[in-house]
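Collaborator request log, item 7. Partner lab (contact: R.S.) asked for a structural prediction of 3-hydroxyacyl-CoA dehydrogenase to inform their binding assays.
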Amino acid sequence: MTTVSKAMHGRVAVLTVDNPPVNALSHSVREGLANQMTALAGDDGVDAIVIACAGRTFIAGADIREFGAPPKEPHLPDVVNQIEAMEKPVVAAIHGTALGGGLEVALSCHYRVAVESAKIGLPEVHLGILPGAGGTQRLPRIAGPANAIDAILSGRHVKAREALKWGVIDEITDGDLVEAAIATAEKAVGKPPRRTGEIEIDGDAFGPEFFAGVRKSVAKQTRGYFAPERCIQCVEAAVSLPLAEGLKRERELFQECAKNPQAKALQHMFFADRQVSRIPGITKETPRRDIKRVGIIGAGTMGGGIAMNFANVGIPVTILEVQQEALDRGLGVVRKNYERSAAKGKLTAEQVEGLMGQFTGTLSYDDLSDCDLIIEAVFETMEIKKKVFGELDRVAKPGAILASNTSYLDIDEIAASTSRPADVLGLHFFSPANVMRLLEIVRAEITADDVLATCVDLAKAIRKVGVVAGVCHGFIGNRMLSPYGREASLAVIEGAKPEEVDAALYNFGMPMGPMTMSDMAGVDIGYLNRQGMGRENYETKAYDWVDRLVEQGRKGLKVGKGIYRYAEGDRTPQPDPEVMKVIEEESAKLGIERKPIPAEDIVERCMMALINEGAKILGEGKAYRASDIDVVYVNGYGFPRYRGGPMHYADTIGLKNVYAKIMEFQEKFGPRWWQPAPLLKELAEAGKSFADYDRENAG
Ligand code: CAA
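Returned to partner:
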C-alpha cells in the first residue's frame, strides 16, 4: 500500500500520509516522504508542498512497534533534515495530534496550519527515550527553551491555541484544513525559506541557573527515571550549540536512552495499558447497557470518591447513606475536594456548582430504582454486603448492574445471594478513588458478558485503567500485596529496622515503603483482618510485633503513632525507639538473633514474593495476561513504571533465575510460604518469559 500519496492542487503538491490507525512513521511512511521530497524538489510543475494526513490524526509519532527491530533507512532525522532543507515552501496541515516524530516532521516544515482541536506534543519521555529527530533542537528554537523543556519533560499534549502563542502553529483555521494549508503554501512561494533550525536562541537568558531550576522542579516526579536528565541535556545543547552540533548531541543522548532497559519497560507499559481492554469473549459486537444514572451506597471517603468519577464526566449520581448526618458530611467532603481544585485554578466556582448539581443525596433505597449501575462501598463484611445486595435486589430496576467495591470478599457468593447473579460484578476502586487511575473489574463466575463489556467501556469513560480480574482473595493487587508485606515484615523481625526496609523499597522506586504505607492505611486494619483469619492462616512471626504495637494503641498516622511516630500536624514518619524495643523483644521471644539485612536482600525477598504470587494468579486464570498484572501494580500501587511492573521486571531478571531464587528461599526459609507457582516453574524450565506466555495466550 502507498502510505504517502500525492495530489496536485494548481502548483501545490499535497502529500497525504495514510497509515492507520494513527499515521505512525513506519518505514513505508519515512520512505514515502523522502522519495516524494526528492521528486518534488526537482519537479518544475510544483511550487510548494503541503503535508497532510488521512484519518483521525496527523502523524502521531514513530511506529512504536518497530522499536527494537534493526532500524531501516531512511532514518527519521534524515527525512526531517531533508524536508527542512527544501527550497520550496513546505506546510504541515495538522489535525488530531502531531506527536513525537510527527511534531518533528511538522517542525521541519516551514509553516504549520492547524484546526482548533489539534494538539502537539513530544511524549517520548513516557517511552523512556527523547525526541531524536531534532525535536529537542527545533522546539526550543521556535517556542523558546522554557516552553520546550516543559513540553519535552512533561510529554503533555499542548492545545493548538497554546502552540499558536508559542509560535509553533502559524495559523488556526475553522475552515477546510487542507485548503487553508494550500493558501498558506501559495502565499509563501517566492519568499526566503523559513527554517526552524535557523532560528537563533538568546542563550544568555538560559544559563546554568535556568537549568538548575528546571532540574530542581522536576526532581521529585522524575526520581529514578533515566530519560528526563538526558532531555534536559539536549535542551542545554540547543541553547549553547549550533544546530548541527546540537543534533549530534541529541543523537548520542537518544542512543543512550534507547539502550537503557527503562525504554523497553516503558514501551511495554504503553502496550500493556492498551491491552487491558481486550477481554476474551468480549467484542465490539457484544451488547452494552446504557448507563445514564449511577447509584452509590455509602458516602464515606470511598463512596464519595467513586461518585466524583461519574459526576466529573456528566453522569448524575444518587448517593445513599443511612443517616442524614453522614450524608451531609460525605457530600461536604466531595464539595471540599472540588473547591480545592477550584483554589488551584482547575475549576471555576460555576463548574463546582455544576458538578455538585450532579449529586442527589438520599436515605432511602427506593430512590435507587432509576439507577442503571449501583456500586456499594459499605463496611467490608460478607454479612453487611449480603444485606445491601438483598435491598438492591428488591429496588433495582431489571437490567441494572449491581457492583461491589469490596477489596477481598467473594463476589460469586455475593452474586449468588441475589436473584440476578448475572448482573453482579466487582468494581474495586483504589483510594483516593477520585485520583487513583486503577479500577479492578472483578468478573464473577456468571457475570453476563454485556455487564462486563459495559463496565470495561465505563472505566475508560471515567478515565480509569480498568483491569479485569477473577474472583480470589484480594483479586490481583491486594492478593499480591500480602506476601510482599509479609516479607517486609519478616525482614524487620529478623534484624532490619522499619526505616531500613522502607528505604530499600523506596530506593528501588516504590513511592513509599511498606511500613509507611501501613501507617498511612492504619495498622489496625491488618490487625483486625488477622484476628478474623486465625493464627494458622498467616505467618505469625511476621506480624506479632505489629499486633503488639496496635494493642498499645499505635494504630498509625491517624493517631500520631504506629510503626513510626509523627509530630503534631506532620506526616513525616519518625523512627521511634519504643517501637524498636518492641521489635527487639519479639525477636528475642522467637529466638531470632537479629542481624543486619542488606537493602538488596530486602528488595529481592519482597520482589520474589510479589512475582511468585503474580505467577500464581496468572496460572489460575485470575488475570488474563502478565501485562495486566503489571498495569495493576504500576497504576494502583506505584510500582516504578520504568521497571515495567513486577512481571516485566521478572522477565528482565530471567524466569530461570527467579525460579532458582524462590527455590533457594524455600530451602532457607522453609516451604510453608515459599512454594513456587506451577506456571513459573513451567516457564522457567521451558526457557520462556511472561511476555512469551502473553504472546502465546493472547486473548
Ligand atoms: N506506533 C504504533 N502504534 C501506535 C502508536 C505509535 N506511535 N500510537 C498509537 N498506536 C496504536 C495503539 O497501540 C492502538 O493500537 P490498537 O488499536 O491495536 O490497540 C491504536 O494505535 C490506537 O491508539 P489509542 O488506543 O491510544 O488511540 P487514542 O485515540 O486513544 O490515542 C494517540 C491516539 C493520542 C495518538 C495515542 O495513541 C498516543 O499517545 N500514541 C503514542 C504517541 C507517541 O508516543 N508518539 C511518540 C512516539 S516516539 C517518537 O516519535 C520518537 C522518535 O521520533 C523516534
